[in-house]
User: What shape does this take?
Amino acid sequence: MNFNFFKSVPFEGSYLDKLHEIENACYPDPWSKAMLSDEIGEEYSEIFLYKNDPIGYISGRLYIDEAHILSIAIEPSWQRKGIGRKFLTDWLHKVREDGAERVHLEVRVSNRSAQNLYISLGFELTGKRVNFYDDPPEDALLMTLDFRKNAY
Ligand SMILES: CC(C)(COP(=O)(O)OP(=O)(O)OC[C@H]1O[C@@H](n2cnc3c(N)ncnc32)[C@H](O)[C@@H]1OP(=O)(O)O)[C@@H](O)C(=O)NCCC(=O)NCCS
Assistant: This one.
């Protein structure tokens, strides 16, 4: 994949309608538009663009040396082309440079595709949160990337 026409930009109101469509297509329990708009101004949340069109996003936070990924989604027609890996890798480099020692995330037990991506980037299973999700109810696996064990 040639990534010349892809870039990430900060969250902005004009993209929210399209992001909400992507969110609805990607998740059984999608975030509302209001939840997506809360990401505006968050330094570690980014929208992924192909040319000027949103094709996905990541929502994240960095608290001193602990980073947390709240959500990542790629529009279904753009999935499995290496785009999630590319943007997540860029994001990991950024939080690493800004002082993160570890990155945490939760993922549905049934979401093997996302787990495969995280494992391929060095995340390890570090716990389980029972009934973490609604609609449908499901446990979450807690996964952690330790930058002391993985060079970024
Ligand atoms: C998870 C997600 C962000 C991955 O983005 P993507 O652009 O499709 O991922 P990539 O093409 O970069 O794939 C990277 C790796 O992820 C894994 N993967 C991605 N899709 C997969 C699938 N359908 N089945 C199995 N593994 C998959 C593979 O390990 C893949 O590497 P490979 O292609 O070399 O085998 C995307 O599938 C998505 O938006 N899913 C819906 C929302 C979601 O589940 N988000 C994560 C919540 S924790």
User: Anything to note?
Assistant: DSSP finds four helices and seven strands in the chain.
